[in-house]
Amino acid sequence: MRYTSVACILTVLAACNSLPAPPVAPQPTPVLAISPAPPATPAAPPPILPYDDAVLSAANALLKNAQLPTPGAPPQARYTVVIDPLVDGMTGAQSSATRAMGQQLATLIRSNYPQYDLQPFTAAAVARNPLVLIGTFTGVNAARQTTGTREAFRICFALADLKSGKLVSKGLAFSKPDDVDSTPLASFKDAPAWTDDPATLGYIRTCQGTKAGDPINALYAERITAAATVAEAIDAYDAGRYQESLDLYTSAQRSTAGDQFRVYNGLYLAHWKLGHRDRAEDAFGKIVDFGLQQKRLAVKFLFRPGATGFTADTGQTSAYPLWLKTIAARAAGSTSCLEITGHTSATGPEPLNERLSQLRAEYVKTRLEASAPALAKRSIANGAGSQKMLVGNGRDDASDALDRRVEFKVMAC
After folding, report:
1. Smaller CB count within 10 Å for the chain: N or C?
2. Distant-in-sequence, close-in-space partners of 39: CB < 8 Å, separation ≥ 6
3. How far apart are CA 190 and CA 398, in angstroms?
4. Non-local CB neighbours of 343 within 8 Å, separated by 6+ positions
5. CA distance 363 to 386
6. Would you write out the chain's pLDDT as a tens digit for each of its 413 residues?
7. 223-197-193 Cα angle (round to 5)
8. Distance between CA 124 and CA 143 in Å, rounded?
């Protein structure tokens, strides 16, 4: 019976297999319930330290944690390093504070880090592809943002390897503002204008918002040889060696990466100091052309406190007629329109600052139209008050002169 039953079953199955299979209703795909991942807790920012402690904290983190040695290097190898002068992270200016910080870094390297062979930042040294130490020193508000009144400083250091084209280390710290001298060096205090210079932006972007292993910003890497010459020119100007500074700026301009705003500022300053008025005017024309190409040019016109007229100090204003004439001529030669915006520091009530900045912009607009009447229908005046401070330290002195700038922005008509 057992075998017969099996045989019968096999016979029936064979018959069934010859029939078309009944349709099978689709089964719903099971849905897996996935619990959302808990939100990541943001890392607490570093504490705000006394200035000297903050510099040491960031510097030691940078130098101790560098991803060295490179493959194939002998165990006791020394690594050549140069320091490209540190800058303000908003304006790109060098100050007494950034210069002192560079000197602190040099002293620390020589005394505590024998694996580094510190050399001067020159074009010849850069040609040997050393490590390059860069840094920014940036004012931040209570929320650690670069807006409003600044209440602390963010210190950012980066170590870049020119051979690999990558960053090998970073250091970060926050400093209290006490005893910090942020007065710009002479080259930057005397500079008539400011704009977004790609060379400076490349430096800042290499340091800020990056991590070890990231590539060096191309804007910086392409211009670093010229940057070394510019650094020497700045040192010469600050020391009063104006002819030497002029020669170095001229050399930088003739290089393949010489089209830099800070180069044209330097050429203007050196020519002006040497009494070369025609050449200074030509250099200022290049400053204006560069700024208008970037669609933004900030000029440091100094006004009487609370007034719309320029300061009575002729030592500071003697070049203003040249500036105004050149800006008017270059702007009139363009087919674009111009927005002229006044800015102030945060001192005083904001409604008053907004009105004062508007009146100052209108004053400059009137002066430009006197030289180029065609601008009357192609320019407007606005006042921003203290809403867009670049420095924001509230000192109302040479350190935050850019907060009281007049900006020229190119716009479609």
Report:
1. N
2. none
3. 10
4. 357, 384, 385, 386, 388, 389, 403, 404, 405, 406, 407
5. 18
6. 434 443 433 343 343 344 444 454 555 545 444 555 566 666 677 899 999 999 999 999 999 999 986 666 676 679 999 999 999 999 999 999 999 999 999 999 999 999 999 999 999 999 999 999 999 999 999 999 999 999 999 999 999 999 999 999 999 999 999 989 999 999 999 999 999 999 999 999 999 999 999 999 999 999 999 999 999 999 999 999 999 999 999 999 999 999 999 999 999 999 999 999 999 999 999 999 999 999 999 999 999 988 999 998 888 899 999 999 999 999 999 889 999 999 999 989 999 999 999 999 999 999 999 999 999 999 999 999 999 999 999 888 888 999 999 999 999 98
7. 130
8. 42
Look-up of token digits 């694996």: 115
In terms of DSSP H, where are the helices of 65-197? 96-112, 123-126, 186-189
pTM of the model: 0.86
| 356 DSSP assignment | H
Q: Tell me how far apart the alpha carbons of residues 138 and 14 are, in angstroms, rounded to a whole number.
A: 85
- Phi-psi region at 161: left, alpha or beta (left = phi > 0; alpha = psi -120 to 50): beta
299: phi then psi, degrees, rounded to nearest 5: -115, 135
In 3D, which of 357, 331, 334 has the Cα closest to residue 344? Answer: 357
Burial of 233 (0-12, 13-18, 19+ CB in 10 A): buried
What's the CA gap between 271 and 233, in Å, rounded? Answer: 13
Sign of the dihedral defined by the CA atoms of residues 392, 396, 400, 404, in that order: positive
- Residue 74 CA to residue 78 CA, distance in Å, equals 9
Among 14, 5, 153, 6, smallest CA distance to 86 is for: 153
Q: Is the peptide bond before 69 cis (omega within 30 degrees of 0)?
A: yes
* 125, 148, 154 from 389: Cα distances, Å: 37, 7, 17
CB 262, CB 197: distance < 8 Å: yes
Residue type at position 150: R
Q: Would you call 155 helix, strand, or coil by DSSP?
A: strand
